[in-house]
Write a structure and sequence with these properties.
The protein is α/β, with parallel strands linked by helices. It is built from eleven helices and eight strands. Helix 1 packs across helix 11. The two termini are 14 Å apart.
């Protein structure tokens, strides 16, 4: 099982990228599970025709430990297994602790043994890398971490913080930084700045995505680019990135 986490600053296009990667992996014949670790619980919405799924925390609040595994995991397009950790009631509780509770619930329900996915993708908010947000890194859920960034200063700053957290936990035998993914925004010196970031982090830029209006057009349809515009250059860009990510994980692309 390939276990990877993709971190990035909020609004950087992380969930869109993860969802398109999930579809690309599924189209290669892989069984895919995508786990959203963001309190907004919108990671998998494009895999469900724009419809949100009930979060693990919502189900736990309603049913407690009596919740069945099939209630926690919902099938999306291309057979992708969709999970949303969810978050606490606004103004009450800690979002990080919510992620911890959700992932522990999946573990206790033997979700990975029952569904046996070939690849699990954790979509994690990267503005805050503490507590539950670091759980995919530090508890063995993910083995490889990718940081998604543009050349914008705040995105690069968040990427550096994420990498520092990964380095801290990698010394304990947890997840390692597998590389940086560039999501182009067209800012000055973008390629150069992200390359400098990768060098500072002693890693590589494993792949890059172009800016395309098709991404927003697909989202307006509640779909990934690979579903809405499968023959487009942008869709091919996601397919190429999927192969690059597999290679960075030490796996042969299908």
């Amino acid at each position: 099982m390939i276990k990877l986490a993709i971190y990035g600053k909020g609004g950087i296009g992380k969930s869109t990228t993860v969802s398109n990667l999930s579809v690309a992996f599924a189209q290669q014949g892989m069984r895919v599970m995508q786990v959203g670790c963001d309190p907004k619980a919108d990671s998998t919405v494009l895999l469900r025709g724009g419809k949100p799924v009930k979060t693990v925390l919502e189900i736990l609040r309603e049913k407690g430990k009596q919740a069945a595994l099939e209630e926690l995991v919902t099938e999306g397009c291309a057979g992708i297994l969709c999970v949303e950790a969810g978050g606490p009631t606004p103004g009450v509780g800690c979002a990080g602790r919510g992620i911890i509770a959700a992932l522990e619930c999946l573990e206790e329900a033997h979700a990975f043994q029952v569904y046996q996915p070939d690849v699990v993708l954790y979509d994690v908010l990267g503005d805050v890398v503490c507590g539950g947000f670091a759980m995919p890194i530090r508890e063995g859920y993910a083995e490889n971490v990718f940081v998604l960034t543009s050349g914008e200063n705040m995105a690069i700053h968040a990427a550096a913080n994420i990498a520092a957290a990964v380095e801290h936990f990698s010394s304990r035998g947890y997840a390692t930084l597998a590389g940086v993914i560039l999501n182009r925004r067209g800012v000055p010196r973008e390629e150069e700045k992200v390359q400098e970031l990768a060098e500072d982090l002693k890693t590589t830029v494993v792949g890059a995505l172009d800016f395309s209006p098709l991404v927003q057009q697909a989202e307006e349809q509640g779909k990934t680019v690979l579903e809405a515009f499968p023959e487009s250059p942008m869709a091919e860009g996601y397919r190429v990135l999927a192969k690059q990510v597999l290679a960075a994980c030490g796996k042969e692309p299908v």
